[in-house]
TrEMBL record:
It comes from Lutzomyia longipalpis (Sand fly). The lineage of its organism: Eukaryota, Metazoa, Ecdysozoa, Arthropoda, Hexapoda. The keyword Nuclease does not apply. One of its GO terms (cellular component) is plasma membrane. Belongs to the insect chemoreceptor superfamily. Heteromeric odorant receptor channel (TC 1.A.69) family. One of its GO terms (biological process) is signal transduction. It is found in: Cell membrane. The chain crosses the membrane at residues 33-54, 66-84, 191-211, 255-275. It is a multi-pass membrane protein. Keywords: Cell membrane, Membrane, Olfaction, Receptor, Sensory transduction, Transducer, Transmembrane, Transmembrane helix. GO terms for molecular function: odorant binding; olfactory receptor activity. This is Odorant receptor. It holds the Pfam family 7tm_6.
Amino acid sequence: MFLKNLTFEKFFDVLKLCVSARTLRRPRGYIRINIFFIVLTIIFIFVIASVICYIKRSIYDDNAKFILFVLAVCCILGYSKIILKNFASVPFYAEYQRLMDWIEELQQIEDDNEIIRKIFKEELTKAMKYSLMCFEGYFWLFIVCSSSAECIPVFEKDTTMFIPYLDVKSYKWIHHICDALSFFGAGTWNVFADSGAVIIGIYIIFFMRIIKRMIELLNQDGIMEKYPDLLIRILRKHVEMIEVLNIFNESVKMLSFIQIFMSTGLLLMFIMIIQVQKNSFMNYVILVGVTDQLGLLCIFGEIIRTESESIFTSLYLTKWYDLSVRNQKILLIMMMNSYKPFGLKAAGMIDVTFMTFVQILKLSISYSAIILTLSEM
């Protein structure tokens, strides 16, 4: 647990690093680490070119191993996915910056209402805790996946890339080192790049829970007499939630689309690898890593959708009949705004939900079986 007992300031620096890794831009008030990620992008473009060279050679090589050929295709998909997601996020740097500013402001809120202040403190503490847990789990998962991916070409005594002007047989050790560095670099970079949106998403989810808990306060006897402006406060937070959700959805819409599209291809390839090598444990580890990326995105979309629905339910279950006519109208406005659930949409079209994840899994399994059947004919 290398991020245990981290202060919010240090945690926020981690978030800035993650956003920089995704947008290739320098967050306000942070070091120019984006230059490193720009250089890394250029390096991985050359890595992709080297893998393409290997694939071209394998097509005309009768002794080429099918497992390495498929792994090389997976490498291209994986490396390209990282780069494309970064390029897709560059235009939305301003949205990421606004969301980071919002999180920082959220942490600094000192409400004069003791109950609301307590709710904010509890939920924001949970948000930071779960963000760190998610980051660490994601990090170690991809370290294991990267190591497992490197083991495949080592055990097969071959490589997944061809470096021009370097003979593979004479300099195989150089190719293996480049393989290992590219696998490890891609895995680590992917963790940092994805974690920015993940952390922001977690804070949005817990902010929605703050609003839900504030709404539930309305059912307490005498609460409106004690805090007559409570409903107005809830309304303001609710409007803020809608605005933040729209910004977040805008910032990740293309990223989500690329993730879904490329992960479908990766799942298809790795399911094929597993069907060819059913006894290889490493293949299953890599498949878990690939599935985890897509699953995490879809689960996030599902949670956000569920939380928005629960806010509407909480509003519906309030003792509205005990409120004044003015407050009833405010409650009605909030219910109208919450009637349609909020959720993530990939490219503004595809609902990012758990059902989407299940459909992609079914599609990948079906198509991999068809491709393998046709290849054996």
